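Researcher: Please translate sequence to structure tokens.
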Amino acid sequence: MIAAYDGPLAAFDGASVDGAAYSDVVRLAGRAPGWLDSTVALWSTYGLLLFAVLMVWAWWRARRVGPEAALTALAAPVLVLAAFAVDTLVKSVVREVRPCRSLHLATLEACPAPGDWSFPSNHAALAAAAAVALWFVSRRLGVVAVVAALAMAASRVWVGAHYPHDVAAGIAVGALTALVGLTVLRSRPTSVARRLAASRLRPLLLAGS
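Model: Translation complete:
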């Protein structure tokens, strides 16, 4: 379905995909207790900082395990940035109008400006990429990150920023980008890690260097 928006270009309207589900969630948020809405909105806005903390913590611990583990941990933020780039590229191709602009519902988060496309969700992609990368570094941190990534995706619908299919696609983009990157990296982890450990980057790979 194609619809016009307040800008110079026609854009895709995702309301026909799961607009009803989105509307139900937004209306539920409107009836929810204030403390719950505030908590979800706070997480939706600042929750990505948790993934940054987890990645730093994972790298710090990985240095004590060995250069291969540390290299995987160092790759995590790079893969997150790669996921952001891929997600942004898909956004520019699909150009889906934000649901808050198409459906004209009151939302917890202010509706982004026209041209700030909705599909896929950047937040979901970043969180999913970080979660997958952290899973390869530490299963415990990976579990925490996976739960946090799902919570981030859900929060983006709750505050009205995205349709459910936006966050589902964002999770897929982030997870796949991280998996591809880690597959390439882990095809020759020992040789790459050894070369880096013998360079000036040694302190990044080994504790006490």
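Researcher: Any highlights?
Model: The two ends are 58 Å apart (CA to CA).
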